[in-house]
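Reading a protein record of the kind used here takes only a little practice. An example makes this concrete, so a full record is given next.
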Amino acid sequence: MAISEKKIDVDVVNNLSARLSQLEAMLIVTQDENNSFSRWGAKVQCDYLWACAEMANQAKKLSEKLSTA
């Protein structure tokens, strides 16, 4: 099937967009001008970054789903 003939799964696109927006917002928090992230406890920082990594992994899987559709 030619690229122009591929059917794009709108739900996957919407989910991917949501995951990327959420990840962006989460990462912005780590770089605020007050440097508040560095004042969080080590476990909270670790858990927060783990959540960011999980969000990135979900986005990657959704992206792969689109590229194989």
Remarks:
- The chain has a mean pLDDT of 90.
- The radius of gyration is 16 Å.
